Amino acid sequence: MRPGARIGAVIEILEDLEARAVPADRVVTAYTRSRRYVGSKDRREIGDLTYSALRTWLRVTWWLERTGCAEATTRARLLAVLVLAKKMTPEDLEMFFDGEGYGPSRLTADEQSLIAALSGAGLEHPEQPAWVRDEVAPWLHGHLQARFSEDMAVEMSALQQEAEVVLRVNSLKGDRASAQNALAKDSVETHETRISPIGLRVEGRRALQASGAFRDGLIEVQDEGSQLIALLCDVQPGMAVADYCAGAGGKTLGLAANMKSRGRLVALDLDGERLRRAVPRLERAGVGAVEQRRLPDNEWVRENAGTFDRVLVDAPCSGSGVWRRQPDARLALTPERLQEYLTAQTEVMQAAAGLVRPGGRLIYATCSLLQEEDEAQVEAFLKNNDEFTQCRISDVWASVLPEVACPTEEAHLLLTPHKHGTDGFFVSVLERRAGG
Q: Does the residue 142 lie in any domain?
């Protein structure tokens, strides 16, 4: 594809995103797969520019308002991204917006004036409010400020960066050394993750699904923080374990590997289609039988009350910890939607707790950086369920990761992109008293 055609593709994708409440990754994937002429380099360039537009949305909006842009059209927004973030010149843009083939139509006089007004500027400006610079809506900015305080600027900057590709090595099939060797045969260079003992970070971008290591089930794409959550569940072979919000099975796979596929593992979720999508992943990983249950299933929950050694609740949440990968999610979050997540978290945590046997553990996790979804939920749960106590993460860590220093002295674990190089995750381990 010509550069202009790629820009035209991004305009179409952004228009589609504004018209429909669909995650950006799905829209980009559907667009590129449906057009046979889009090559691998084209896919990368289209994805890069789309995500650049999403990561800079509030700063670009501020600039459009500052320049007096009459209408923040998709074209105007993308022109601003190309000038402010990609440093394209007016001459570059005249060449790319030429109306030829699949490229965008020629620039209007207003668009030329906008380009002239923006030329030489950068994305950030001293007069921008903090919430604009941090790419967080005003209503949400205070929530994150309460979390990070003096670290706010660096944490928000880290959330605006592109995340690395991280792999979990499937211990049912091999170890990190064998995975690195297998990947190297397909020219995929990796290095070990800093905290997780089963993780690898990929150098650059590679078509991992075409690699032998992926096809053989030796690796799965999974952020280092997500790997740590599964490890902190401290599951053992022969245990009864429930993954209460299993989704497409990322953590289910990790739990199964830690159990060495021995014991009872149940994956539960509201979305039956997501559960079904986990089946080929489980098969590729060499995981034994995993029972799947679509929620709500009140009869099953009653029959299995108090029978599980471990119950993981990877709760539905704002996803603020994974904005590096899903920058559109920060634009979609509203106060009303956050309240819906808070209600769902309370209900899910309470329901899952009933499955935990005396002496067993409930592990509550989110990919959120908001205190309301994290510590506050745990505190409210403990207040209403005195048969549960909170385990210190450092104690759990010492038993499952003795060779790795625990990154916190707090009772819970909060991982952030700036401090730990992972996505943002929260995890708390709660134990039901033996006599509870």
A: no
